[in-house]
Design a protein that fits this description.
The chain is an all-alpha fold. The protein has 65 helices and two strands.
Length: 1532
């Protein structure tokens, strides 16, 4: 029956609908029941639910029902119409929710018309209907976890309409809507709720339900379109962030996009932070998954693509809303410390990549790059500081030094799939890091250590190399940035040139497309320094060798610059030419070797032709460069001198010495030039063998031919041509046959030259030993220039004779005689060298002693400064003069590098050098020359520099190979005799191991062989430390081998630790042995001790660089023994030598941390080590300070005023602390004290990081109660204990009677201590979870009470000598004393009063100290107020620190005051003070007005502090702080 009645109603409705009688339809529907209407709509929409959309009519009946209801509403029957519309809407929503198609596209097609109709009738629905429909949809979300897509456009407007409804009665069953007042037994209750409350309940309920992961994006999009309050925005935002963990991987980009759109409503920082945190967690989870490598790679690629899309969404939304970018940066800075702690020292990869992507927006570029650059360098600095700070390391979270490198490498690797948008920003970041860390000045300004800057630079270089090889679109940018820094000569341009060299070494073919850019740089070659040009040419030499047009263009540019007006430009061109020459010669030698090997191996004809073609090209290029060099040798004297010097260094290279083509061409050049100045025996007639006068200008007597440089270079050329094996790598036999006769002729001439110079007298050169050699007269200048050239010729003859005997004589043994028989002898005789050196020494002494400037000082301090011998030449001689006896006897000398000789020949050369070893002056001379070459000292007396030269020409930096060989020679030949541990118990005669001849007796004057050898070793260590190659030196000395004398050797960490420890032990024994030879060897021990200090620093760095545990233990034991040994030396009877004492203090402070047990230094304990550990570590420094202060009291005070506590001091022991040594030692201790305070400052910064990390870890576990931070409290205790230990050391200096010159240092150190204390107090105020511990109170009492008392006494003592009375018992102002005859000392001849600038500087220093003390006290009082803990009674306050009341002036002052109540301040100023400070009288009234204004302004600001101090201590300050400083400044 019901179906029949419904069909009749349907027919009637359809009939009325065809007639468009919508009002009648409404009247008809109003008579039907709600259930009938619902069933009609349900039947009408059933076809859509069934999926049969072909049936007709579809939706016609439902549409008529909606139109009928709307017609009733329009006619005024609102209630009836709203009822019909509400029923129909509810039925439609129910039918849509019941339809669950699998394909979302189908549901959109079927229900689009209904959804549009619902939006149309929504404004006409009643409140009840709106509520019912809204909660029907909510029920669907709860049941299915999703909302049908047909309702997505309808629901936001529905909820917005719901929020506008007024109060409505809601019948509930006692749950929901906040109902909790239902009577007992009642099943329902009625409550009143507004539409806004219902909307809030709906949104909160929707956020509390589970969402289907597949529908997460749709639900988020729905919630985003709803207008929400601030509270609901927060609720929805956190729900969306939680849904990220449940969404599918491919849905994440869309989810993030909806979140970013939703962030425009607010909570930007929370939303962007949640997104970053989620993907960081995904990264960590993915990195922990272990499985198949292919699957892992696939998973990372998928994740990278998704993350790349997410980054694009983030950047797009930031461009639309810049506040989102600010929120991203703020979140990164806020979470920086927590992220660093959690990641072990580096930010997470995804967050780092997002920041790099953000940097592509110009608005955020500078801020992001600066933040990331600081984060990287600071993280590396913190890692190194944590590793070297043993007293705080166990309590702080670890920081991995390799974290930053892994981060940058990961970003570069991920940029290949999905993250390509971050590559350009990564390049910019790495370049910025290199700019920051490339200069030592910039590193000092940034407060980062040099080691941290070097590590950051290395990491950035590695990242740039990876990015350059993986992305072609960034290569042009990288090359442009490198070349721009080279052209503008920035502080870091040398590091960028090293980067360019690495890029060329990685793949030179890639860089050939940038040849035009290199050409542009060389067009501006005049702005490039010679060192930069050399490094640039070395870097791109593979490209120059293979690119003929580029090579021609480069040579053309150098040819132009060779004839520039400025000598600096010509010197730059010379540097470039010699680099090209060495590169071409090296490549030619390599190609010839490969060509010979290919011929022997019967390689293919194609390969042989290719190698032969390359040889021909290199030969042609080499001849072209030699043509330019020939033109250089005809220019001005300074150009020729520089050319000869560089040619000499070039001839030291093995590849050049083996090139017969190059040697033959040079022979042709030098043979003609040599003939101009050489006098054969038949021509000289007893005169000089060199025409010296031809080398001088006939009028000005200046040098026009640098004959000494020429002879040095020519001698090396002749020796290289006659060395066994010459011509083996020549490209043709003709060049070799042409070179040998020329070399033989030149050898005969050199033999005659050396023999005649060995017999020459100074009169042969028209010189008088007692003549005038001054530079201010024409005659003296001519004598000086002549003598200088003669000494240079003797030096060249010595160099040739040494090289001839070492390299040529044993094989050829030249004993031939010239044709005229005028000069004969055996040049292979070692005595020739001794005779030549005797002449050189005598002539050099004459020149050095007679050549004095206007200040009566020697222009040439030492004859070794006159030598032009190169470091390679000296090393080749010293390896024979100072032989390693042990390895020579074993037949394994590492420097026997001759390719065609055996060990017996090497031993025979050592035997020939025995005569030289016996001549201590010659050994000293060779060592001093080597030291001068290492220290790059210019040759003394060289006045040929051009007038238009802008800088002093320094010799080139020595190669690492030469430094390693030199260090090995001086150690194995000299220092090893003192560093053998088996001789520790030997006495001064060294009976167990006899010393060689050159060590048996000290020279009559100057430094000895041991001293110079120690200086050479120290200089080599210093230079190698700058290039991070000190480990190579230790390996070369301890385990010498030919292949280890190179700077490209890769060392395992265990080998480096073992060798550094062994070398350190040997040098310790050497110091001990040398100190037993006091007083002769005290200076020598001091120099060796400096080398010990360098090795101690390096071994401590290795101990905490992530090496193996066994290597770490080995390093610790060596350093522990070194520390105990240093303490024993300090506490023993040290010689009274200031240099040795300073070295001992530096060594003590560098290894004091290793006095602690192994468990503290390299242990893994996580508890505070206690105050006793700091006392043990600092006890030696404390004892040394006590002894020094006692000695100072002994020297400054009379015996009658000597303190009682110093009665037991051994005065003989304290004699080593003299008036001269005490200030120097105190300065070192103060420097150490400030360095320790810097470490404490760093630890305080880590305290804040520790607090933030613990709070972040406990935020999810604590329920609002007090948070306990045990690790942070332990860190704070350890900092307080450390400051107490340091304060005890400073207390001795504050209370001791130091020289007045030390007052400034002590006051500054105490000011730094108060600054550190204020920093700690502020850190405690910033963290309410850090309680006031007992250790803090102990440190507070010591610093702010005990030390303040001593500081006030020190200030009073200092002012008493600066602003005092003129009575007999005190020192008057400005040091004016009364003499016995009643006259002032000021009237005495030569009296110099204290400068006013000194007085003002002292007063400014004291004022700064008092201000810092008051600032620390202010922070302590604020901390006391915050924690409600009385702390002010621990403060030592004083108000009488800036003036003194003199009893003798009180009656006069009282009389003046009684006569005139309006007396001014200048009426009480003494006449002497009025003379020194006239501004006291002139500006008195103006100052008083300023004081009154300051009092009024400050009294209100400090009232709270004064009341707190009065409550806690019973003391009320009567003097304002600013007023005190104002009076003090005027009195100063």
């Amino acid at each position: 029956m019901a179906d029949e009645s419904n069909s009749q109603v349907v027919d009637a409705l359809l009939t009325l609908g065809r007639e468009k009688a919508f009002a009648e339809i409404g009247q008809m529907l109003s008579g039907l029941g709600e259930s009938v209407l619902y069933s009609l709509v349900e039947e009408d929409l059933g076809t859509l639910v069934a999926g049969d959309v072909s049936l007709s009519p579809v939706f016609l009946l439902t549409n008529l029902i909606f139109k009928g209801g709307c017609a009733l509403v329009e006619k005024g029957a609102t209630q009836a119409g709203e009822g019909i519309l509400g029923t129909a809407t509810g039925a439609c929503v129910s039918q849509i929710c019941e339809d669950e198609p699998r394909d979302e596209k189908d549901i959109g097609k079927k229900w689009n018309t209904i959804s549009d109709k619902l939006l149309e009738v929504l404004p006409q629905l009643s409140s009840r209907s709106i509520i019912d429909v809204a909660f029907r949809i909510l029920a669907e979300l709860k049941a299915c976890g999703s909302i049908p897509s047909a309702l997505h456009s309808f629901l936001p407007m529905l909820l917005d309409t719901l929020g506008t409804i007024g109060p409505v009665e809601i019948v509930t069953k006692g749950e929901g809507f906040g109902a909790s007042t239902a009577a007992a037994g009642d099943s329902t209750t009625t409550i009143m709720r507004t539409g806004l409350a219902l909307k809030s309940y709906w949104v909160e309920s929707a956020c509390s339900y589970r969402w289907d992961p597949k529908s997460s994006v749709a639900v988020c999009a729905l919630l985003r379109e709803i207008v929400l309050s601030e509270r609901l925005i927060e609720v929805v935002a956190y729900r969306m962030l939680r849904q990220l963990k449940l969404a599918e991987l491919n849905e994440l980009p869309a989810m993030v996009y909806q979140l970013l759109l939703f962030a425009r409503n607010g909570f930007k920082r929370e939303i962007i932070g949640g997104i970053l945190s989620f993907f960081d967690a995904v990264e960590n989870d993915s990195s922990k998954d272990d499985g198949d490598a292919a699957q892992s790679q696939k998973r990372w690629r998928e994740l990278g693509d998704i993350e790349g899309t997410v980054m694009l969404h983030i950047i797009y939304n930031i461009k639309q809303d810049f506040e989102l970018g600010d929120a991203l940066i703020a979140h990164a800075k806020e979470q920086g410390d927590v992220a660093l702690a959690a990641a072990g020292g580096a930010p997470s990869t995804f967050s780092f990549a997002c920041l790099l992507a953000l940097a592509r927006i110009h608005r955020f570029e500078d801020a992001v790059i600066s933040f990331l650059r600081t984060t990287i360098v600071k993280s590396i600095h913190d890692a190194m500081a944590l590793a070297s700070t043993g007293w705080i390391r166990p309590l702080l979270p670890p920081i991995r030094l390799s974290a930053q490198q892994q981060l940058l490498s990961a970003v570069v690797a991920r940029s290949s799939y999905g993250w390509d948008q971050v590559t350009q920003s990564l390049i910019q970041l790495c370049l910025s890091v290199m700019d920051l860390t490339g200069s030592s000045a910039a590193a000092r300004r940034s407060a980062y250590s040099a080691q941290a800057c070097a590590e950051a630079r290395r990491i950035s270089t590695q990242a740039l190399r990876l990015a350059f090889g993986g992305h072609d679109f960034v290569r042009a940018e990288v090359v442009d940035q490198i070349l721009s820094r080279v052209m503008f000569q920035t502080d870091s341009h040398m590091h960028f040139l090293a980067l360019l060299g690495d890029l060329v070494a990685d793949d030179s073919d890639v860089l050939r497309v940038f040849v035009p850019k290199f050409v542009d740089v060389f067009d501006s070659i005049s702005v490039i320094s010679p060192a930069a040009l050399e490094k640039l040419l070395v870097a791109i030499s593979p490209i120059v060798l293979d690119d003929a047009p580029f090579r021609s263009s480069l040579i053309l540019v150098l040819r132009k610059i060779l004839f520039a007006h400025s000598f600096d430009d010509r010197r730059t061109a010379l540097s470039g030419l010699f680099v090209l020459t060495s590169s071409f010669a090296s490549a030619l030698d390599e190609c010839q070797g490969r060509l010979g090997a290919a011929a022997l191996a019967a390689a293919g004809a194609g390969e042989v032709r290719h190698l032969q073609r390359r040889v021909d090209v290199l030969v042609s290029a080499l001849l072209e460069v030699l043509g330019l060099l020939r033109r250089c040798l005809t220019q001005q004297p300074e150009v020729r001198s520089a050319s000869y010097e560089r040619l000499g260094l070039l001839l030291d290279m093995p590849c050049v010495r083996s090139s017969s083509l190059l040697l033959s061409a040079l022979h042709d050049i030098f043979r003609v030039e040599f003939a101009k100045y050489y006098r054969a025996p038949s021509q000289s007639q007893g005169c000089s063998p060199i025409n010296i006068q031809l080398c001088l200008h006939p009028v000005t007597s200046k040098v026009v031919m640098p004959i000494a440089s020429f002879l040095h270079c020519y001698g090396k050329l002749v020796v290289a041509s006659r060395t066994p094996g010459f011509g083996t790598s020549s490209s043709s036999s003709s060049s070799s046959s042409a070179g040998l006769p020329a070399a033989a002729v030149a050898a005969k001439a050199w033999k005659d030259l050396c023999l005649r110079f060995s017999r020459a007298q100074i009169e042969d050169f028209e010189l008088d030993p007692t003549g005038d050699y001054s530079l201010d007269s024409q005659f003296g200048l001519r004598n000086f220039s002549t003598a200088h050239l003669v000494v240079g010729c003797l030096d060249a003859c010595i160099g040739y004779a040494l090289a001839h005997i070492i390299n040529v004589a044993p094989a050829t043994a030249i004993v031939d005689e010239d044709s005229d028989g005028a000069s004969s002898g055996n040049l292979a005789d070692p005595t020739i060298v001794v005779e030549l050196f005797t002449k050189f020494n005598r002539f050099g002494d004459i020149l050095s002693s007679r050549c004095i400037d206007e200040r009566k000082k020697k222009i040439i301090p030492s004859i070794s400064d006159l030598s032009l011998l190169s470091l390679d030449s000296v090393v080749s001689v010293l390896r024979l003069v100072l032989p390693d006896k042990q390895r020579v006897d074993n037949g394994s000398h590492p420097l026997n590098l001759d390719p065609v000789t055996d060990h017996n020949w090497f031993v025979s050369r050592i035997a020939k050098a025995g005569l030289w070893s016996a001549n201590q002056l010659l050994v000293k001379h060779l060592l001093e020359v080597a030291l001068a070459r290492i220290q790059r000292r210019p040759v003394a007396g060289n006045f040929m520099s051009s007038n238009n030269s802008s800088s002093t020409v320094l010799p080139p930096a020595p190669a690492a190979r030469a430094l390693l060989e030199m260090a090995y020679v001086v150690f194995s030949g000299v220092l090893v005799y003192f560093g053998d541990s088996s001789d520790q118990a030997a006495d001064t005669e060294q009976s167990q191991r006899p010393l060689p001849v050159y060590l048996r007796a000290k020279a009559a004057r100057g430094r000895g062989v041991v001293h110079i050898s120690a200086e050479i070793l120290l200089a080599c260590m210093t230079l190698l430390t700058l290039s991070n190659s000190l480990d190579l030196l230790a390996v070369a000395i301890v385990r010498p081998a030919p292949e280890r004398f190179t700077d490209s050797l890769a060392l395992p960490s265990n080998v480096a630790v073992e060798c550094v420890a062994a070398l350190l032990t040997s040098l310790r024994h050497a110091v001990t042995t040398l100190l037993r030879l006091k007083p002769m060897a005290v200076k020598d021990a001091s120099i060796v001790l400096a080398s010990v200090q360098i090795l101690t620093t390096r071994l401590s760095e290795l101990a905490f660089s992530g090496i193996r545990r066994e290597d770490q233990v080995l390093a610790y034991h060596c350093l522990h023994q070194t520390a105990k040994w240093t303490v024993e030396l300090v506490q023993s009877e040290m010689p009274n030598d200031l240099g040795l004492m300073k070295s001992l203090v530096v060594q003590l402070t560098s290894c004091q941390a290793f006095l602690q047990p192994e468990s503290v230094v390299i242990g893994t304990t996580t508890v505070a080590v206690g105050p006793r550990s700091d006392e043990v570590e600092l006890e030696p420094v404390d004892q040394l300070t006590a002894r020094m202060c006692a000695a100072s009291r002994l020297h400054i005070r009379d015996p009658d005023n000597f303190d009682d506590e110093d009665e037991d001091v051994d005065e003989q022991e304290l004699e080593k602390f003299t008036v001269r040594s005490i200030p120097a030692l105190a300065s070192l201790i103060m420097s150490w004290f400030k360095a320790e305070l810097h470490r404490v400052d760093w630890a305080i910064g880590q305290l804040r990081r520790s607090v933030n990390m613990e709070l972040n870890q406990r935020s999810g576990t604590d329920d609002g109660g007090d948070v306990d931070l045990p690790l942070s409290i332990g860190v704070e205790r350890q900092i307080c204990w450390r400051m107490c230990a340091l304060s005890h050391v400073l207390e001795r200096l504050l209370s001791g009677s130091l020289p007045k010159a030390m007052y400034d240092l002590v006051i500054r150190a105490f000011q730094d201590l108060h600054r550190t204390w204020a920093l700690l107090t502020r850190a405690k105020m910033a963290s309410a979870q850090l309680p006031i511990t007992e250790s803090y109170i102990d440190a507070l009492s010591l610093i702010c009470s005990d030390l303040n008392t001593h500081a006030y006494a020190l200030i009073t003592n200092k002012y008493s000598n600066m602003i005092g009375a003129e009575d007999a018992t005190e020192q008057p102002l400005s040091g004016i004393k009364k003499l016995a005859d009643g006259k002032d000392e000021k009237s005495k001849k030569g009296f110099k009063p204290k400068p006013k600038s000194k007085v003002m500087r002292d007063s400014s220093l004291v004022s700064s100290l008092v201000y810092q003390m008051e600032l620390s006290e202010k922070y302590v009082i604020q901390l006391s107020t915050k924690f409600k803990t009385p702390l002010a009674h621990y403060l030592k306050r004083s108000t009488v620190r800036d003036f003194r009341i003199k009893k003798s002036d009180i009656p006069e002052a009282m009389a003046i005051a009684s006569d005139d109540e309006g007396v001014h301040m200048h009426d009480n100023v003494s006449p002497v003070q009025q003379l020194q400070y006239p501004q006291l009288v002139e500006d008195d009234e103006e100052d008083e007005e300023e004081e009154e204004e300051e009092d009024v302004a400050i009294s209100g600001a400090e009232s709270d502090t004064e009341e707190l101090v009065a409550d806690q201590t019973g003391y009320s300050s009567t003097e304002d702080t600013a007023d005190v400083r104002g009076k003090r400044a005027r009195l100063d």
